[in-house]
Design brief:
CATH class: Alpha Beta
CATH topology: Rossmann fold
Strand order of the largest sheet: 3-2-1-4-5-6-7
Shape: globular
Radius of gyration: 18 Å
Helix content: 25-40%
Largest sheet: 7 strands, parallel
Number of domains: 1
CATH architecture: 3-Layer(aba) Sandwich
Number of helices: 8
Structural class: alpha/beta
CATH superfamily: NAD(P)-binding Rossmann-like Domain
Distance between the termini: 33 Å
Number of strands: 7
Amino acid sequence: MNLFSLKGKNVILTGGNGNLGKVMAKWLLEYDATLFIADIVDTPIDSLSAYQKSGSLHYIKCDLSSTASIRQMYGTVEQIGGSIDVLINNAAYGGGAGGSKSSPFIDNVDDEMWTVGIDGTVGVTFRCIREVLPFFDKQGGGNIVNIASMYGTVAPDPSIYGDTGNNSPVMYGTGKAGVIQLTKYCAANLSERGIRVNSLTPGPFPLISEATDKDFYEKLKAKTMLKREGKADELAGPLLLLCSGASSYMTGSNVVVDGGWTAW
């Protein structure tokens, strides 16, 4: 466990109040990180209340579409923790994240929808990286983990979506492909400053409910070699690897956790 320990590390997790973000937060705290969740929603997560009371979990409300808000968030983290050691770029927003304003049909994607979608995937990641650099430079380095997606490496198969309306919009995959390339670019250009940059690419980790289309769900599972969807806790090991000293000789890597979906 010491190999993956985050004890003494101040970790920022953007989008930590989301579906997968909450699970990431739990494991980062389990491995002794001092965690700062930066999100537009700052409602405390009930299951993590003990960590907040102990002082190892902090919530910072941040509009990640705003450079000024990001700068202020980093300043707050530094003021509380004294340093920023790990930045996890997990947040995505707008149509590009599959939000209500997105369209699964290219014909219906107007310029505004496209711009918001790309900004909500790769734009937000770029801004968060650019603005953390002065803080990393002050301490001689840092570690960045970008959350990408399998749809940044392969196209969605339209046959599994049918007419469900759950099709992944064009902005999402395009933006996540940009996140993977941004990871490699930053790894190459920031290594001399002591900054490592890697990405984590999840496969199908759907939020299943009673409203989920059963036919779609079965087709989704069949696309993976393991014939099932991912469970959120299964991202913990790869995430802890990239955040900790266990990955000290890794930079520019893209770690794929997709049940074999992209390896066919």
